[in-house]
Structure to design on (196 residues):
């Protein structure tokens, strides 16, 4: 006869209730241990995934590929501003979020408001310096999953007026001195507008 059986025979229902309570307590401890192990493994997987994303992110790496496509203009509180090397759309910039996030909703209110205020200042600087007829804004991220906005000035008699900007056709490459002149002018204007 098992211990559980003897308890029932000897002391009846009181002992059986104690046994069930003890068993329930042991199961609760076991479940808690299993949950903690699962949480620990999940956390480690998230950390590794974040490290891999950070190592594979075009903007976080900030390597030769990024530098071959754009030139850093300035780093602000929430964003870094780049001048596109392809100046098919004169004044075109990219505003990337400094923290690695892939979606707007991942930002808290302060970061989101700050990021969009800085993006607006970049657009205004482009508008004041290059006088486009309209500024287009584009956010993608399928292939470069890091929050960034393409700020693309459009001109009525220029490339792709009335349709989305297109990087596949036509390229305008400037001399390094021209890029530097644009970087200096845009950087000064953006900082002026942001009161830096």
């Amino acid at each position: 006869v098992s211990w559980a059986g003897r308890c029932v025979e000897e002391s009846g229902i009181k002992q059986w209730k104690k046994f069930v309570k003890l068993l329930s307590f042991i199961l609760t401890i076991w479940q808690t241990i299993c949950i903690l192990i699962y949480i620990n493994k999940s956390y480690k997987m998230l950390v590794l995934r974040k490290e891999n994303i950070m190592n594979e992110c075009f903007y976080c790496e900030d390597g030769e590929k990024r530098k071959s496509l754009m030139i850093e203009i300035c780093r602000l509180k929430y964003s870094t501003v780049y001048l596109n090397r392809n100046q098919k759309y004169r004044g075109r910039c990219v505003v990337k979020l400094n923290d690695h996030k892939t979606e707007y909703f991942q930002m808290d209110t302060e970061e989101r408001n700050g990021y969009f205020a800085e993006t607006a200042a970049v657009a205004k600087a482009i508008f004041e310096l290059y006088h486009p007829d309209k500024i287009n804004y584009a956010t993608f991220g399928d292939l470069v999953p890091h929050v960034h906005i393409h700020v693309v000035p459009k001109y009525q008699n220029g490339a792709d007026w009335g349709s989305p900007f297109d990087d596949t056709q036509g390229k305008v490459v400037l001399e390094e001195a021209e890029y530097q002149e644009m970087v200096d002018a845009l950087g000064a204007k953006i900082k002026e507008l942001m009161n830096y």
About this structure: The radius of gyration is 29 Å.
